[in-house]
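Page 42, continued from yesterday. The earlier attempt failed because a stray header line got pasted into the input along with the sequence. Redoing it now with the clean sequence only.
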Amino acid sequence: MNERILIIEDDEKIVRLLQRGLAYEGYEVDAALDGEAGLIKAGNHKPDIVILDIMLPGMDGIEVCQRLRANSSVPILMLTAKDSLHDRIDGLDSGADDYMVKPFQLEELLARIRAVLRRTEQDRAPILTFSDVT
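This time it went through. C-alpha coordinates are written below.
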Protein backbone atom coordinates (compact mmCIF):
# COMPACT_ATOMS: atom_id res chain seq x y z
CA MET A 1 0.00 0.00 0.00
CA ASN A 2 1.29 3.45 -0.91
CA GLU A 3 0.86 5.92 1.90
CA ARG A 4 -1.15 9.04 1.10
CA ILE A 5 0.29 12.41 2.14
CA LEU A 6 -1.74 15.60 2.29
CA ILE A 7 0.23 18.84 1.97
CA ILE A 8 -1.51 21.96 3.32
CA GLU A 9 0.72 24.81 2.18
CA ASP A 10 -0.01 28.15 0.48
CA ASP A 11 3.35 28.52 -1.29
CA GLU A 12 2.79 26.84 -4.66
CA LYS A 13 6.52 26.54 -5.29
CA ILE A 14 6.99 24.51 -2.10
CA VAL A 15 3.91 22.43 -2.94
CA ARG A 16 5.34 21.52 -6.36
CA LEU A 17 8.73 20.66 -4.83
CA LEU A 18 7.10 18.43 -2.22
CA GLN A 19 4.75 16.80 -4.71
CA ARG A 20 7.66 15.85 -6.98
CA GLY A 21 9.91 14.65 -4.18
CA LEU A 22 7.23 12.67 -2.37
CA ALA A 23 5.81 11.11 -5.54
CA TYR A 24 9.34 10.07 -6.53
CA GLU A 25 9.57 8.24 -3.18
CA GLY A 26 6.34 6.37 -3.97
CA TYR A 27 3.84 8.35 -1.92
CA GLU A 28 0.41 9.38 -3.18
CA VAL A 29 0.21 13.14 -2.74
CA ASP A 30 -2.73 15.52 -2.38
CA ALA A 31 -2.36 19.25 -1.79
CA ALA A 32 -4.44 22.16 -0.56
CA LEU A 33 -3.46 25.82 -0.64
CA ASP A 34 -5.44 26.90 2.43
CA GLY A 35 -6.66 25.46 5.70
CA GLU A 36 -10.32 25.07 4.82
CA ALA A 37 -9.54 23.20 1.58
CA GLY A 38 -7.07 21.08 3.53
CA LEU A 39 -9.70 20.03 6.05
CA ILE A 40 -12.07 19.08 3.23
CA LYS A 41 -9.38 17.02 1.49
CA ALA A 42 -8.42 15.36 4.77
CA GLY A 43 -12.05 14.34 5.28
CA ASN A 44 -12.50 13.08 1.73
CA HIS A 45 -9.16 11.34 1.11
CA LYS A 46 -8.11 10.07 4.56
CA PRO A 47 -4.35 10.78 4.40
CA ASP A 48 -1.82 8.69 6.29
CA ILE A 49 0.06 11.86 7.26
CA VAL A 50 -0.46 15.62 6.87
CA ILE A 51 2.33 18.12 6.19
CA LEU A 52 1.00 21.43 7.48
CA ASP A 53 2.20 25.03 7.27
CA ILE A 54 1.21 27.42 10.07
CA MET A 55 0.99 30.65 8.08
CA LEU A 56 -1.99 29.96 5.81
CA PRO A 57 -4.55 32.38 4.40
CA GLY A 58 -7.81 32.42 6.32
CA MET A 59 -7.61 29.64 8.89
CA ASP A 60 -4.05 29.29 10.21
CA GLY A 61 -2.23 25.98 10.63
CA ILE A 62 -2.69 25.90 14.42
CA GLU A 63 -6.47 25.93 14.00
CA VAL A 64 -6.28 23.39 11.18
CA CYS A 65 -4.18 21.15 13.39
CA GLN A 66 -6.63 21.44 16.29
CA ARG A 67 -9.59 20.66 14.02
CA LEU A 68 -7.83 17.67 12.49
CA ARG A 69 -6.88 16.41 15.93
CA ALA A 70 -10.47 16.80 17.22
CA ASN A 71 -11.73 14.32 14.62
CA SER A 72 -8.73 12.17 13.74
CA SER A 73 -5.47 10.67 14.93
CA VAL A 74 -3.79 11.29 11.55
CA PRO A 75 -0.12 12.14 12.08
CA ILE A 76 0.64 15.83 11.50
CA LEU A 77 4.08 17.20 10.66
CA MET A 78 4.28 20.99 10.78
CA LEU A 79 6.60 22.48 8.17
CA THR A 80 6.81 26.22 8.68
CA ALA A 81 9.02 29.29 8.70
CA LYS A 82 7.93 30.08 12.28
CA ASP A 83 11.03 29.11 14.21
CA SER A 84 10.83 30.52 17.73
CA LEU A 85 10.64 28.22 20.73
CA HIS A 86 7.14 29.58 21.46
CA ASP A 87 6.04 28.71 17.88
CA ARG A 88 7.37 25.16 18.17
CA ILE A 89 5.66 24.64 21.51
CA ASP A 90 2.37 26.04 20.17
CA GLY A 91 2.57 23.74 17.15
CA LEU A 92 3.27 20.64 19.17
CA ASP A 93 0.72 21.54 21.84
CA SER A 94 -1.93 22.06 19.16
CA GLY A 95 -1.59 18.39 18.24
CA ALA A 96 1.30 18.12 15.79
CA ASP A 97 3.45 15.00 15.99
CA ASP A 98 6.57 16.70 14.64
CA TYR A 99 7.75 20.20 13.75
CA MET A 100 10.25 21.23 11.08
CA VAL A 101 11.44 24.73 10.21
CA LYS A 102 11.88 26.12 6.68
CA PRO A 103 14.18 26.23 4.89
CA PHE A 104 14.45 22.46 5.03
CA GLN A 105 16.30 19.60 3.41
CA LEU A 106 14.06 17.15 1.58
CA GLU A 107 16.11 14.21 2.87
CA GLU A 108 15.42 15.16 6.49
CA LEU A 109 11.71 15.68 5.78
CA LEU A 110 11.55 12.22 4.18
CA ALA A 111 13.28 10.68 7.21
CA ARG A 112 10.82 12.38 9.57
CA ILE A 113 7.87 11.18 7.46
CA ARG A 114 9.19 7.61 7.57
CA ALA A 115 9.69 7.85 11.35
CA VAL A 116 6.15 9.12 11.98
CA LEU A 117 4.65 6.52 9.64
CA ARG A 118 6.63 3.75 11.41
CA ARG A 119 5.21 4.89 14.76
CA THR A 120 1.67 4.82 13.41
CA GLU A 121 1.94 1.77 11.18
CA GLN A 122 -0.01 -0.48 13.53
CA ASP A 123 -2.92 1.98 13.63
CA ARG A 124 -3.11 1.98 9.82
CA ALA A 125 -2.72 -1.78 9.27
CA PRO A 126 -5.82 -3.67 8.20
CA ILE A 127 -7.19 -5.97 10.87
CA LEU A 128 -7.27 -9.61 9.84
CA THR A 129 -10.33 -11.61 10.72
CA PHE A 130 -10.65 -15.37 10.96
CA SER A 131 -12.34 -15.47 7.52
CA ASP A 132 -9.29 -13.70 6.01
CA VAL A 133 -6.96 -16.55 6.93
CA THR A 134 -9.15 -19.54 6.16
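Notes: Residues 55 and 61 are 6 Å apart (CA to CA).
Reminder to self: strip header lines before submitting.
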